[in-house]
Design goal:
This protein has one helix and eight strands. The protein has about 130 residues and is an alpha+beta fold. The longest helix has about 40 residues.
């Protein structure tokens, strides 16, 4: 019986260690996912102008009245637009070589001094201010 009891104690200890290891990994993955999600969140304030000197900010948030805010991440050759009332989209710069006008077949974005205008097919223009 001594061997049976020792085996049971070892199994219990192994189960406790496995549970502790699972909890530790779960907590670490939650922290890592939380950090990753936070880094992907759009900023809420206008950042400094880009290095190329175009005056268009790299990150910007524009107020769109009662709809909320539209965020724009300007990559110079394209822009990631997150409107308050629809899905996000990455629009290429058109024409190439400038960083204030972006468009695709269905929508276009124009960044002016302190203002962003998003035009989408079949919808009124969304004019937002920064």
């Amino acid at each position: 019986m001594v061997n049976g009891r020792a085996g049971a104690d070892r199994r219990k200890r192994g189960a406790r260690l496995a549970a502790c290891g699972w909890l530790a990994l779960s907590a670490a993955s939650c922290t890592l996912l939380g950090e990753r999600d936070a880094s992907l969140a759009p900023p809420v304030a206008v950042a400094a102008p880009d290095e190329a000197g175009s005056g268009a900010p790299r990150y910007a948030s524009y107020a769109c009245g009662a709809l909320g805010a539209m965020t724009v991440e300007n990559f110079q050759t394209s822009a990631l637009v997150v409107p308050p009332d629809g899905p996000s989209a990455e629009l290429p710069a058109r024409p190439a070589g400038q960083s204030r006008r972006f468009s695709s077949a269905a929508q276009s974005l124009v960044l002016e001094e302190g203002r962003a205008v998003l035009s989408r097919s079949g919808q009124p223009d969304l004019v937002c201010t920064g």
